[in-house]
Amino acid sequence: MTTGAEIRIRGVVQSVGYRYFCYTHARTLGVTGWVKNAPDGSVVVLAEGDRSAIEALIEELRIGPTAATVADMDIKWTPYTGKHQTFQIAR
Q: Which of 27, 37, 62, 91 is catalytic?
């Protein structure tokens, strides 16, 4: 099933390579969308694709790169829009 998800990750997730970590895993899994740092210190992900691929990405994001510490994650499942052709690091 094709779907979307808005994911907010809190903890030590900025300046530790978290966005690049997310980018590489999303691209490997065939997930489209973007990842960006939020002003409040969290990282926000918009992911679209096969639900099982997004669930696999979420499991990777719970772990994060070595220097990160994930304290909390909010996931909101959303309808698939098809707006994104690739996965990108947004600024």
A: 37
Query: From first to last of its 91 residues, what are the pLDDT tens digits of the chain?
Result: 899 999 999 999 999 999 999 999 999 999 999 999 999 999 999 999 999 999 999 999 999 999 999 999 999 999 999 999 999 999 8
Domain that holds residue 82: 2-89
Annotated active-site residue 8? The verdict is: no
In 1-91, at which residue ranges do the beta strands (DSSP E only) sit?
A: 2-12, 32-37, 43-50, 69-78, 87-89
Which residue in the list 19, 51, 62, 91 is annotated as catalytic? 19
The yes-or-no answer on residue 62 being catalytic is no
Count of domains for the chain: 1
Contact of 5 with 49, CB cutoff 8 Å: no
Q: List the CATH number of the domain containing 42.
A: 3.30.70.100
